[in-house]
Design goal:
mainly alpha; 2 domains; 23 helices; 2 strands
Length: 567
């Protein structure tokens, strides 16, 4: 009974176990099916269509209101994988395996091989990956492994900065690789605030570690290399952004890396959200601007039938039906998350053919001017508390009990991120795996998608995914319990080491940054819960790192100055 535990204490034996886990994952999980939804207009179907267009040499296909609104990296990699004979779900799992290995081997440095194995199993069997969201063709399938790689490489650099002797040559390469991964994250999803905040925390921790170095001669000798490294870490992420801007400029006439972060649309939405009827101080939760307000705005512009009036009259209010089902308070209006898409679509529909991003941005410039004129001239409308991009200020959130609502959203998000759950978004479901929709069968075949999964196979795979989820659920709980025990049962010296560990601090900060942003999304737009699948693996890494620092007498770096024995 003691053989497995004893064997895991040996680095060589632990590597064999890790190889065995990877082999099982490659043979059993990677070939498994996912949930293909190619008929969806956004997300799954959009990314499938982009991948098909890339395979045909058409970049992302003809421009529409979604073309530059979402990062295309996921579709690009799916298309490349399909050309190599790898289906989209196998590609996603292979990339996730690579990211998990990098994360496990860098967050858990040598000394606790069993802990590295436990972290790897917890990541590969993560219940989020086998639930309804994890089985789909979403950008998260590319974003999460790259994020884990960036966090792992950043952890490696922080550990090497803690060493007694600073060796810039051992720091530069992983630092540059981390910076490039950050650049890939910036063109995969539009939530750049999370990435920028994570890197800010990392830079602060790295600067503090360098500041505490006592080898002043070494500091002077390495200062040029250190300055160069910090400069490169700020510049290298711009490389993927510049490439994407160039591609969009070539195909759509405008150098834009992501419309949600650049261009005039976010300014237009913020100005429009600032409109309200004079004297009306009653706000609706998650509704940035009321339907009645926009109708009044269109009436105020009746002497100018084109431009903003036409855009407002062209809003398809049925686009908010899904939000209505999720938030009944918004049924007579439209929650801001859905209004964003309805406005983009209305603007695109009014463009003269052939439409492109350049004409879209030109239209936005004119619309921004018209909103400013409306604010200054209208007798029935006023502009107050202008939003910042897509987020309205708390004074306009409209909740009867704001404190209670914030607490509710926070509890829901933090529970999914930090507390292991067996089925965070429901049990695995493959029943929707079908070909129906606008994509031609030839395109789906080119993407290596099977036509249909027989019912017997659906049952088999769903049972397998449930079993894997149970393993991941139990492993996450094991790491959480060990982390809590390690904080209460061990000596003060170990606790101080853990509290001074920059990697643990960074992983905890990243988990909190993700959680805080998702809480904010839930308060102003739509539920941020689905995005917690990006944060949960970071929390697992934090638990593992905490265990390593509290259990190990050989923690990396010297003990804190205050704990050194008096001689």
């Amino acid at each position: 009974m003691t053989f497995p535990l004893g064997a895991l204490r040996s680095p060589g034996s632990a590597k064999l176990f890790i190889c065995f886990v990877c082999l099982v994952y490659l043979l059993l999980i990677v070939p498994g099916p996912g949930t293909a939804l190619p008929w969806l207009i956004v997300d799954d179907g959009l990314f499938f269509r982009w991948s098909s267009q890339i395979q045909q040499g058409n970049w992302l296909g003809p421009w529409d209101y979604l073309t530059t609104a979402k990062g295309p990296l996921h579709s690009l990699l799916v298309a490349w994988a399909a050309d190599l004979g790898i289906g989209p779900f196998a590609y996603k799992r292979l990339l996730y395996l690579l990211g998990s290995l990098v994360f496990a081997f860098t967050v858990i440095r040598p000394g606790r091989p069993w802990l590295r194995l436990a972290l790897l199993v917890a990541l590969l069997a993560d219940p989020f990956q086998f639930g309804p969201l994890g089985l789909r063709n979403l950008r998260e399938g590319t974003y999460l492994p790259i994020q884990m790689t960036a966090l792992g490489l950043g952890s490696l650099v922080l550990d090497r900065l803690r060493a007694d002797v600073l060796r810039p040559a051992r720091i530069l390469l992983p630092m540059l690789a981390m910076a490039f991964a950050v650049g890939l994250l910036l063109i995969t999803r539009e939530g750049r605030l999370i990435v920028v905040s994570e890197m800010f925390v990392w830079l602060v921790l790295a600067a503090l570690l360098l500041r505490n170095k006592q080898q002043w001669r070494l500091w002077r000798r390495a200062s040029v290399s250190i300055l160069l490294s910090f400069t490169l870490i700020l510049l290298v992420p711009l490389l993927p952004i510049a490439i994407l801007r160039s591609l969009h400029a070539t195909h759509y006439g405008y150098p834009l890396s992501n419309s949600f972060e650049e261009g005039g649309f976010s300014r237009f939405f913020a100005k429009l959200s600032a409109l309200r009827e004079r004297g009306d101080q009653a706000y609706i939760p998650r509704v940035s601007v009321k339907k009645r307000t926009l109708i009044l705005a269109a009436e105020e512009l009746r002497d100018r039938p084109e431009g903003l009036r036409r855009i407002l009259n062209g809003i398809d209010w049925s686009d908010g039906d899904y939000g209505c089902r999720e938030y009944p308070d918004t049924c007579q209006d439209m929650a801001s998350g859905w209004l964003v898409w309805a406005l983009r679509k209305s603007i695109a529909n009014q463009l003269v053919s052939p439409a492109n991003e350049a004409r879209f941005q030109a239209a936005l410039s004119q619309l921004n001017r018209e909103v400013d004129q409306l604010c200054s001239s209208s007798l029935r409308l006023e502009c107050v508390n202008q939003s910042s991009g897509y987020s309205t200020p708390p004074t306009r959130w409209g909740f009867v009990n704001l404190q209670q609502e914030v607490a509710h959203e926070t509890a829901a998000i933090f529970a999914k991120v930090f507390v292991p759950q067996l089925f965070p978004f429901g049990r695995p479901d493959l029943a929707k795996h079908t070909w129906k929709g606008p994509m031609a069968p030839a395109d789906l075949q080119r993407l290596r998608l099977p036509e249909q999964i027989p019912l017997s196979e659906q049952v088999f795979w769903q049972r397998l995914y449930v079993g894997i989820s149970i393993i991941g659920f139990l492993m996450r709980w094991l790491l959480l319990v060990l982390a809590l025990l390690s904080l209460t049962l061990f000596r003060q010296r170990q606790l101080v080491k853990a509290s001074l560990d920059p990697v643990a601090a960074w992983l905890l900060s990243c988990s909190l940054i993700h959680s805080a942003i998702y809480v904010l999304i839930g308060l102003v737009s739509f539920s941020g819960a689905p995005y917690t699948l990006l944060a949960a693996p970071i929390a697992v890494g934090f638990y593992s790192r905490l265990i390593r620092e509290t259990l190990s007498d050989k923690a990396i770096g010297p003990p804190p100055q205050s704990l050194k024995p008096i001689t």
